Please model this.
Amino acid sequence: MTIKHWPEDQRPREKLLRQGAAVLGDAELLSLFVRTGSGGRSALEVADNGIAELGSLSALAMASPQRLLSLSGFGETHYALLQASLELARRHLLFSMSDREVLSSPEAVRQYFSLHLSGLEHEVFCGLFLDNRHRVIEYAELFRGTIDSAAVYPREVVKHCLSRNAAAVIFAHNHPSGVADPSDTDVRLTRKLTDALSLIDVRVLDHLIIGRGRQTSLAERGLM
Model:
């Protein structure tokens, strides 16, 4: 039975319009992007199967185009819609942080980095560069590595800060394993960057480790 033949109070779109998006489950939300079924399955069943195959809604949303298109019932249009929705969320969060001190909304900072980094299969090291009132100047991906590590060069980070006239920075990188615990290497790198940037009066406010559904702050752990 297709979704249009379901009782109206069970249809994802009608539920969203009446009660808001927060009441929908992961598969129900995704079914609004899938829109039509495939192979005798409803859009909700296609969505549910896709999430099950990749392990989570986040993993599906962050999947490469090749991986997403390998799922039954998904095509290029679905990939484009998912990427557009992620970019809308990123821009909304960046706008919400742009006219205020980022430390007043730490959860928005974590969500912003997670939308960029969570679920990636390779390691990415990035930074949120701030002015002297801790307002956002720029988000930038600084280094990209393999599934194991990314080579981070303090000299290049210093050059980037100087070129943007940054007064402070928040770093983040992901662990493709999904585990958000900082390694000894992460701690050493953070201290090395902090020392290098202190020479040009740029403060490192935090370094976030992004895992699967979890983020760890080195500043909160006293590891800076």
Q: What stands out?
A: The chain has a mean pLDDT of 86. The CA atoms of residues 103 and 112 lie 13 Å apart. The beta strands are 124-130, 136-144, 168-174, 203-210, 215-217.
